[in-house]
Specification:
alpha+beta; DNA Primase, Chain A; 4 domains; five-stranded antiparallel sheet; 18 helices
Length: about 425
């Protein structure tokens, strides 16, 4: 019997690993994890750890580890299909046989992952031997460790280098086009999509290469060129860097910084701000907000300080709030993006920006005050009029708090507001 990947993921997500393991192992909460005596070897001191956040277990005594399915397989002496059925029944999920068409679709997706992975390896190898491009990245503040950690690469200034390489690996041209790494013009000519660009592999939350972002080395346009949407990549439902943040997040309070670009993401993480994700060159979507909420409770928006960045911030506020997140906005100094700021002022200064970030409503009111001079009577009237529209969206307690704030700022009575 063949099971589609989405069904396996659904079954895993519907069976909390702490609940499953607690049925056979007495667990005690220690920090953000749980500990107990390992069920797979004899011990007197607990060395068996379970992570609710990562939905993984690990014994530091015998080395056993894995996810909820592997635990059930090992603990109940079941094979994969038996363990999957056990968990499916527990979650009231019906296992279904996959049609030939669906199996072919899954196999095609698997092939596209392989193509993107091989392209990423090729781009990485190009960068390793190109001192000019490595020097460019170092001048931009990206060190060797970051280049390796995030799999950065370089697409040669050629029309067919990648095409020839992938064909040598016996991939079909039609599949290369479907994967988005090769393109075909109206005349039927086939050539590399990316040429003479810094390559940023885009990973899904499981660490699989699903697409690329590509940046020019000069001022030519377009500055960034991204992979097209494919069967494995929808930029509106993915976040750059999520896999890295989930792997080694340092923050147990489920807080994350949201930035716009690849360079901002790498710049912050390189200097110790590890809980970061980035949008993929598009306006934030509801699906991306839901993805952030899946792993976090609080989000700090840290977009560029220019007009475009401010507009992007305002568009994102209510989308993130509606996803159930507590939203704060980092007020970047004029003319700087997060990467520029942390390179110039350092981690501690950026942490101070996080600590003094605006709550959502305060930021909306701050933007209104930027537009209207509240020291001027007409400006004050305009400000209060627009602020009232914001107050209408709040619950009674929040409304009362902000009415008092606005009254104190403008010397207009609370009753008038």
């Amino acid at each position: 019997m063949y099971f589609e990947e989405y069904l396996i993921e659904r079954i895993k997500e519907s069976n909390n690993i702490v609940d499953i393991i607690s049925e056979s192992v007495k667990l005690k909460r220690v920090g953000s994890n749980y500990q107990g005596l390992c069920p797979f070897h004899s011990e007197k001191t607990p060395s068996f750890s379970v992570s609710s956040e990562k939905q993984m277990y690990k014994c530091f005594g015998c080395g056993e580890g894995g996810n909820v399915i592997t635990f059930v397989m090992k603990n109940n002496n079941l094979d994969f299909k038996e363990a999957l059925r056990f968990l499916a029944d527990r979650a009231n999920i019906e296992l279904e046989n996959v049609s030939k068409e669906k199996q072919e679709y899954y196999n095609k997706r698997k092939l596209l992952y392989e193509i993107n992975t091989e392209a990423a390896r090729y781009f990485f190898a190009n960068l390793e031997k190109n001192n000019r491009v490595r020097k460019y990245l170092k001048n931009r503040g990206i060190n060797n460790k970051s280049m390796r950690s995030y799999g950065l690469g370089y697409s040669n200034d050629s029309w067919n280098d990648l095409l020839d390489h992938l064909k040598e690996k016996e991939f079909k041209e039609s599949d290369l086009i479907l994967a988005g790494v090769i393109t075909k013009n109206d005349k039927g000519n086939i050539y590399d999509r990316f040429r003479n660009r810094i390559m940023f592999p885009v990973f899904d939350y499981r660490g699989r290469v699903i697409a690329f972002g590509a940046r020019v080395l000069d001022d030519s346009k377009p500055k960034y060129l991204n992979s097209p949407e494919t069967p494995i990549f929808d930029k509106g439902t993915n976040l750059y860097g999520l896999n890295f943040t989930l792997k080694d997040r340092s923050n147990r309070n489920k807080k994350v910084v949201l930035v716009e670009g690849y360079m901002d993401f790498i710049g912050l993480r390189q200097r110790g701000i590890l809980n970061v994700v980035a949008t993929l060159g598009t306006a934030l979507t509801k699906e991306q907000a839901k993805l952030i909420k899946k792993y976090n409770d609080t989000v700090y928006i840290s977009f560029d300080s220019d007009e475009a960045g401010q507009k992007a911030t305002l568009r994102s506020l209510d989308i993130l709030k509606e996803a159930g997140l507590e939203v704060f906005i980092i007020n970047m100094p004029k003319g700087l993006d997060p990467d520029d700021y942390i390179k110039k002022h350092g981690k501690d200064a950026y942490v101070s920006l996080i600590d003094t970030a605006f709550p959502l409503i305060d930021y909306k009111l701050y933007i209104l005050k930027e537009k209207d001079d509240i020291n001027d009577d007409q400006g004050k009237i305009n400000y209060v009029k627009n602020a009232v529209d914001i107050l209408k969206t709040l619950n009674p307690v929040e409304r009362d708090v902000y009415i008092r704030k606005i009254s104190a700022e403008t010397d207009i009575s609370e009753s008038a507001i």
